[in-house]
Design a protein that fits this description.
about 500 residues, alpha/beta, Glutamyl-tRNA Synthetase, domain 3, Arc Repressor Mutant, subunit A, four-stranded antiparallel beta sheet, 20 helices, 15 strands, about 45% helix, binds glutamic acid
């Protein structure tokens, strides 16, 4: 069938959006954009018990941060709104009535205690064709009694009447045809009079139909609901416009079996949420990819490859390329291990593609966190410092470790290197070095390197020891970019000041 592609991401605002949900949103988006279709964001907030304040804003902010654009939704509006289920009660009420009138659903009065008793009495009790006659519902009671109870304000639910003995076919574009027996389905509750709200199943189907959804792309955990959804489409007489189903593979623990959980993130030290989240009830904070220093492009690229591959070994793909190359035929059925280290690898790659001036802007808040005011330095100085060390970082915050010495002169010197590189004659050589540096006509890296190295050779000094001692005084440890690049940026005065300080402060280790 050639129909307009309309997909929806339909989260429930029950807490922060899990990273698996983000992947679902992303795949919907890639599919929509590739087909020139429409991306809908529908808020499924019919479970009033599980509603969490702030969760809807969080969803919007997370999608926005990642560059997943919404065409129709609560904020964006659109021709099939409202896009929030709690604002669609009339629509659901009307559709519940349609099913009741058609004899496809019925009213049930069983109390929780009665249901509990039935479960206790019959092993594997299921409310279905085989048991509904023994329960208190509009199929087992005379019509006037049903009406009397409703008129008396007795609470009830509406249940879907699942026909026994049917083979229900779910056509899944990744999994192929899945056939299940209707006998394993129970008569699901579709509506509760107590809060005048439908359950997930009814609201989801009615909205997918009314919003003209062409493809339902969602996580594998919803696969068990799909047969019921197929039967509901039929019961409403909408079988002709049933969407195609796509159930995405689960995200699995990085190490071992089972579904990825927040606990795995806590245990292994990675976020499972796109943004930092503070639980409004407990104040508990969960880390987020954004606040942990990931670039949104890296997160998108990383997630895109968890359950899909482009058919070759290309790894780095921006949103545009992902949109071009995405295909359901290259989505896997098998769960995808959440290899979180790969996420930092992607972040490293994307950080390298950022122009140094953008990277330095991201670094400024990190400087402030460490008590250094970026305004005390030339912008160009910060940009060059960042550019010199960026190949060594996976996260923006790593810049501090790599570049701090450009902003704060060392006050401590790494003991291991002192032991190895600093001996009784070093202070005199360093003193000589300051003289050489002071006398250089040109302090640039290109001009300074040869004369200094030549001096070391001429004097017969140990190249490694002298250069490392030099580095120790300037950097505080024996690491960092090219020595003469460092000194060029620090400038002559600062370089010499640091060497002198090293001479004063570094204690010659006792001979061992
Ligand atoms: N509200 C459901 C969720 O939270 C939607 C599932 C679906 O896409 O059908 O994921």
């Amino acid at each position: 069938m050639n129909r307009e592609v309309r997909v929806r991401f339909a989260p429930s605002p029950t807490g922060p959006l899990h990273i698996g949900g983000v992947r679902t949103a992303l795949y919907n988006y890639l599919f929509a954009r590739q087909h020139g279709g429409t991306m809908i964001l529908r808020i499924e907030d019919t479970d009033s018990q599980r509603f969490v304040p702030g969760a809807e804003d969080y969803i919007n902010e997370a999608l926005h941060w990642l560059g997943i654009e919404i065409d129709e939704g609560v904020r964006e509006g659109g021709p099939y709104g409202p896009y929030k289920q709690s604002e669609r009660r009339d629509i659901y009420r009307e559709h519940v009535k349609m099913l009741l009138d058609a004899g496809k659903a019925y009213i049930a009065f069983d109390t929780p205690a009665e249901l509990e008793a039935a479960r206790a009495a019959t092993p594997n009790f299921q409310y279905d064709a085989s048991t509904r006659g023994t329960m208190r519902n509009s199929l087992s009671m005379p019509a006037d009694e049903v009406q009397k109870r409703i008129d008396n304000g007795e609470q009830y639910v509406v249940r879907f009447k699942v026909d026994a003995g049917r083979a229900v076919e779910v056509n899944d574009l990744i999994r192929g045809k899945v056939v299940i027996k209707s006998d394993i389905l129970d008569d699901k509750v579709l509506y509760k009079s107590a809060d005048d709200l439908p359950t997930y199943h009814l609201a989801n189907i009615v909205d997918d139909h009314l919003m003209k959804v062409s493809h339902v792309i969602r996580g594998e955990e919803w696969l068990p609901s799909a047969p019921l959804h197929v039967l509901l489409y039929e019961a409403f007489g909408w079988a002709d416009t049933m969407p195609d189903f796509v159930h995405l593979p689960l995200l699995l623990k990085p190490d071992g079996k089972g579904k990825l959980s927040k606990r795995d993130g806590d245990r292994l030290g990675f976020p499972v949420f796109p943004l930092l989240w503070t639980d409004p009830a407990t104040g508990a904070v969960s880390r987020g990819y954004r606040e942990d220093g990931y670039l949104p492009q890296a997160v998108v690229n990383f997630l895109a490859l968890l359950g899909w591959n482009p058919g070759d070994d290309t790894e780095i793909m921006g949103m545009k390329e992902l949109i071009d190359r995405f295909s359901l035929s290259h989505c896997s059925k098998a769960g995808a291990k959440f290899a979180y280290e790969k996420g930092s690898w992607f972040n490293h790659q994307y950080l390298q593609t950022l122009p140094d001036n953008e990277l330095s802007e991201l670094f400024k808040p990190v400087m402030r966190e460490h008590g250094v005011n970026p305004d005390d330095f030339d912008n160009e100085y910060i940009i060059r410092a960042v550019g010199m060390v960026k190949s060594r970082i996976n996260f923006v915050r790593d810049l501090w470790d790599q570049a701090r010495f450009f902003f704060v002169a060392p006050t401590e010197y790494e003991a291991k290197s002192v032991k190895k590189r600093w001996s009784a004659e070093t202070p005199a050589i360093m003193d000589e070095l300051t003289g050489r540096l002071a006398a250089l006509p040109d302090f640039s890296a290109a001009a300074a390197e040869t004369p200094i190295l030549d001096w070391i050779k001429e004097k017969g000094y140990h190249m490694g020891n002298v250069m490392n001692a030099f580095r120790l005084t300037v950097v505080g440890e024996c690491k960092g970019p090219h020595m003469f690049e460092i000194t060029e940026l620090l400038g002559r005065d600062e370089t010499i000041r640091r060497i002198r300080r090293g001479i004063d402060c570094i204690q010659t280790p006792a001979e061992s």
